[in-house]
Structure formats: structure tokens, C-alpha cells
């Protein structure tokens, strides 16, 4: 249960805030995960960040050039 909470705790903010490694470190320290359980938390932050920002879902949409 603690691992699922840790992954969710860092994955949800990582979609909005572009600092997944820092969020993972904060989540690991707050939850108190062991070093063995730290890897899934880091991966959850990186995957959530890369899906939202890497595919362009988290940023503003580009405007089409104005017609003259």
C-alpha cells in the first residue's frame, strides 16, 4: 500500500510541474521508502512527466498563424 501511495503522490504533481526528479526525491523522503522501493517512485514520476509533456498534452496549444 505504501508503494502505491508513494507512486501516486509523485505521479499526479509530475503531470503539472516540470520537475519529476525533485518530486520523486521529495516523495521518497516524505513517504519514507526504502532504497529498494525508491525506483518505482522515480519511474512513476518520469513516466507521468514524459506522457504529459513529451506528447505535448501538458503545454499550451500552439496558435495557427493569422491569415492576411
**Shape, principal axes of CA atoms:** rod-shaped
Determine the strand fraction and express it as a percent band.
under 5%
Task: Please provide the count of β strands.
Answer: 0
Q: Would you tell me the overall average pLDDT?
A: 85
| Class based on secondary structure composition and strand pairing | mainly alpha
Q: What series of H and E elements makes up the topology?
A: HHH
Q: How far is the first residue's CA from the last residue's CA?
A: 58 Å
Stretches with pLDDT under 50, minimum 5 residues: none
Number of helices: 3
- Share in helix: 55-70%
What is the C-alpha radius of gyration, as a whole number of Å? Answer: 15 Å
Largest sheet: none
Number of domains: 1
What does this structure look like?
It is built from 3 helices and no strands. It has 68 residues and is mostly helical. It has one domain. Helix 1 (2-16) runs parallel beside helix 3. The radius of gyration is 15 Å and the shape is rod-shaped. The chain starts with a helix and ends in a 14-residue tail after the last helix. The mean pLDDT is 85.
List keywords for this structure.
mainly alpha; 69% helix
How would you sum up this structure in a few lines?
With 68 residues, this protein is mainly α. It has helices at residues 2-16, 20-31, 35-54.
Amino acid at each position: 500500500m505504501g508503494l502505491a501511495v508513494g507512486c501516486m503522490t509523485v505521479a499526479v504533481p509530475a503531470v503539472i510541474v516540470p520537475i519529476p526528479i525533485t518530486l520523486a526525491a521529495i516523495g521518497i523522503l516524505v513517504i519514507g521508502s526504502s532504497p529498494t522501493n525508491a525506483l518505482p517512485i522515480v519511474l512513476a514520476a518520469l513516466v507521468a512527466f514524459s506522457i504529459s509533456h513529451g506528447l505535448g498534452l501538458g503545454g499550451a496549444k500552439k496558435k495557427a498563424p493569422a491569415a492576411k
